[in-house]
Amino acid sequence: MVQTTSKTPAKETLLTPRFYTTDFEEMSTLDISNNEEEFEAILEEFRVDYNRQHFIRDEEFDASWNQLDQETRSLFIEFLERSCTAEFSGFLLYKELSRRLKHKSPVIAECFLLMSRDEARHAGFLNKAMSDFNLSLDLGFLTKNRTYTFFSPKFIFYATYLSEKIGYWRYITIYRHLEQYPEHRIYPIFKFFENWCQDENRHGDFFAALLKSKPEFLNTLEAKLWCRFFLLSVFATMYLNDFQRSTFYESIGLDARQYDIQVIRKTNESASRVFPVALNVDHPNFFKILDECACQNKNLINIASDSQGAKLIRQLPLYAGLGFNLVKLYFLKPLDTKSTWGTIK
């Protein structure tokens, strides 16, 4: 029997999956009376637990994966680690929210509890996949040693809604591609993505309902500015991360840039049904500027890893250029979703 080694967690950066905490007292005062029926319907969906029997490994996982070349293997393990960390982060947050809200908002508390069940199932399945490569994440170590970022409930709603929806589109896009080109399915976990992404979709619908229960989170000028900020943050983070990992996407027959463009378009369209604004991703400069950002970020990483001195001095112009490009993207005129949703492709 091959021994499994505990993997050293990846170094935390602005682009790595984060662990969150929030103002639990403010969360406990949430009033859902204006759409309580929607929450009851969502809760019933969670209780059904459509994927209860889905995450069961079959004999295909018993194969040897030594045929993967070293670079593909390394990038795939990184994909599993990042995905596992993100899912486990969701589990911790949802579990704590369910515990804190149990006696104050039982419907919301049970929704969080059942979402934490889903996220734990996802994280466990991903961590088990890592064991096929003789590695595992020490999730207990991560719980105690990861830096927790504080977000107010409003920001948790924006960020997590988008995280769940973009997760849906990432998973389903990969699944549909590999369904069409099974020769690129380098590992059996991808077969599980169709049902898996439906968990992400249901979670996103729950956070959409939370946002709609607080009209000031959607109907004010401040809300529009924050929606733009979180849309851009989520899209840019994915784009910059995937630009660094284009070889992994090539190994499963995808062009990383075209994959990201499709996921961004679909997520932007989904968000437009909830958010008061959407980003104008059809603007001729939108993806051109994102490409510049990705190149600047890659150059920053290269400088950080080389052996030459004066790293900060060499990095400063790149940081300035990257920041300026992100500001330009933020100030591209957005789409008013109330009047222009039908024009979003």
TrEMBL record:
SUPFAM superfamilies, sorted: Ferritin-like (SSF47240)
Keywords, in A-Z order: Chlorophyll biosynthesis, Iron, Metal-binding, NADP, Oxidoreductase, Photosynthesis, Plastid
UniProt keyword RNA-binding, yes or no: no
Catalyzed chemical reaction(s): Mg-protoporphyrin IX 13-monomethyl ester + 3 NADPH + 3 O2 + 2 H(+) = 3,8-divinyl protochlorophyllide a + 3 NADP(+) + 5 H2O
Domain Rubrerythrin diiron-binding residues, every copy: 78-211
CDD domains per record: ACSF
Function: Catalyzes the formation of the isocyclic ring in chlorophyll biosynthesis. Mediates the cyclase reaction, which results in the formation of divinylprotochlorophyllide (Pchlide) characteristic of all chlorophylls from magnesium-protoporphyrin IX 13-monomethyl ester (MgPMME).
HAMAP family xrefs: AcsF
Record-given protein name: Probable magnesium-protoporphyrin IX monomethyl ester [oxidative] cyclase
Source species of the chain: Erythrotrichia carnea
